[in-house]
Amino acid sequence: MDIVTRIRTKAKTKFKTIALPEIEDVRVKEAAKIVEKEGIAKVLLFGRGMLDKAKQEEYAKMYYELRKSKGISLDDARKSLEDPLYYAAMMTHNGEIDGFVAGASHTTPDVARAAIQCLGVDEKINIASSCFIMSVPDCSYGEGGAFIFADCGIVPEPNSRQLASIAIANAELAQKVLGIVPKVALLSYSTKGSAKGRAIDKILEALALARQMRPDLLIDGELQVDAAIVPEIAEIKYPDSLLKGRANVLIFPNLEAGNIGYKLVQRLAKARAIGPIIVGLKKPCSDLSRGCLVEDIVDCVAVTAIRAQ
Prior knowledge:
- The protein is of the alpha/beta class.
- Helices cover 46% and strands 15% of the residues.
- It starts with a helix and ends with a helix.
């Protein structure tokens, strides 16, 4: 069973309600039909001009309480709640739905801002980041061609502690959604001292912190990508690696590398890229690329439903 089929099948085991607050986008409407037809989740589909006024006021007051320490006024909160993104996020915060998926007609910063401000950051992780589940056809690397790439959408230049937290959050996602044992590689242009520099020092610090935070986690770095995912290359470059060239969770050193990396694999290897999935929050949600296909939206709904289980 391929990874996409496994994700959709797993989503069906516990029926969850997921909001799609972009009804004006034809791809979203089509995806909602598929999700409900296949029994992946219950969909709540809405957009501007369709929001319950009484609920808007209720959510605005809740949002104000969440954000007043940041200097927003109740009127600011009311204005935010005119946006279906914030409405969906506050529904999720309030437990009325299980998660939301948006981004077909909003930018990643728009979606991330609503998600972070309304759902809150998980104190155990302490940073919100994003990832893609990559499914590469005819590929023996990773987990039968399945990988998680992070961070590809939110944190421009993570410091060592943030990098460690991103690694842990995405390892947990791999286990929860894909049902695999996470094997995490902290990627670099160097493999175990083949080069020197501040960027490599950051990765080594992140590795030490991640092992301190999660001693049970199978994680290694710094590793060039071939040494991380190709057993034969790992044997040459770093035979003592814990991963043995079988990494399935790839943590990029910064946003630039992560974003370029996932798009190269998606386009050149014809990989399925599910996401961006926002991790590190108290409740699940997913972003979408504005160039997403209908099937991408369906897959993100399925992932969000599994995370809500």
